[in-house]
Design brief:
globular; alpha/beta; 7 strands; Rossmann fold; about 45% helix; seven-stranded mixed sheet; 11 helices; single chain
Length: about 260
């Protein structure tokens, strides 16, 4: 059963709809570094995954079918037949699911720092068990170490604190249940079904979803393009917003001309 996801809307009401999904352990606010640029021409809809932010937290475990079904239900609630989809990390996985299983609903697809199959499964089961036992702070330091390159936290303590707050305020049950969705995910067999023009962006120093994961997606999705952002780890959109914004603007404006 789908849940009614929390979302925010910015930009012109008559602009093309751009639906944005965030990473595991964050909410729609993660796209703040892109919002001013994207909302100039798009009706930007930033949503919180189930179990995250201000969305409901149903009992887990969740599957990618659950998370993707929530997004399709959100598009229906908004009365949007076709949208542009963007997602980082978990948001990218959900966007791939929607684009593969409901290709008629997706006009363009932007995937950031994500993977179509992210093992080993036992690592995700262990992470879920860790947060259930010790709360979100039990994983915060390790997760933040993968989100940013070495040295970035010292230079930008405020930005890192902002993302840490999102992580530690994520409901334990929702985070663990989404870990289960990643644990069982394998989207590689359906990537060929994606018909939307696709841009895949990787962080050159991303230890969570290394560029090889992005390469496999780009090789499997017909006509997809790959871009690797230097000096960026897993949250490339936060660490290198100018580079990511330029890539997104160029990709999205191709269909605006």
């Amino acid at each position: 059963m789908t849940v009614d996801l929390h979302y925010t809307v910015d930009g012109p009401p008559d602009g093309p709809v751009l639906l944005l999904g965030s990473s595991l352990g964050t909410a729609g606010a993660l796209w703040q570094p892109q919002l001013a640029m994207l909302a100039q021409r798009h009706r930007v809809v930033r949503y919180d995954h189930r179990g995250h932010g201000r969305s409901p937290v149903p009992a887990g475990p969740y599957t990618m079918d659950d998370l993707g079904g929530d997004v399709l239900a959100l598009l229906d609630r908004l009365g949007v037949a076709r949208a542009r989809l963007g997602g980082i990390s978990l948001g990218g996985m959900v966007a791939m699911w929607v684009a593969a299983y409901a290709p008629d609903r997706v006009e363009r697809l932007a995937l950031l720092c994500t993977s179509a199959r992210l093992g080993p499964p036992e690592a995700w089961a262990d992470r879920a068990a860790t947060v259930r036992a010790g709360g979100m702070t039990a994983i915060a330091d390790a997760v933040l170490g993968r989100w940013f390159t070495p040295g970035f936290p010292q230079r930008h303590a405020g930005i890192v604190g902002w993302t840490r707050c999102q992580l530690t305020s994520t409901p334990v049950q929702g985070y663990a249940a989404c870990c289960a969705a990643i644990e069982t995910m394998d989207l590689e067999p359906v990537l060929h079904a994606i018909t939307a023009p696709t841009l895949v962006i990787a962080g050159a120093q991303d230890p969570s979803t290394p560029p090889e994961h992005a390469r496999r997606i780009a090789d499997a999705v017909p006509g997809a393009r790959l871009a690797v952002v230097p000096d960026a780890a897993h949250l490339a959109n936060v660490e290198q917003p100018d580079a990511v914004n330029a890539l997104l603007a160029e990709f999205l404006e191709e269909s605006d001309g």
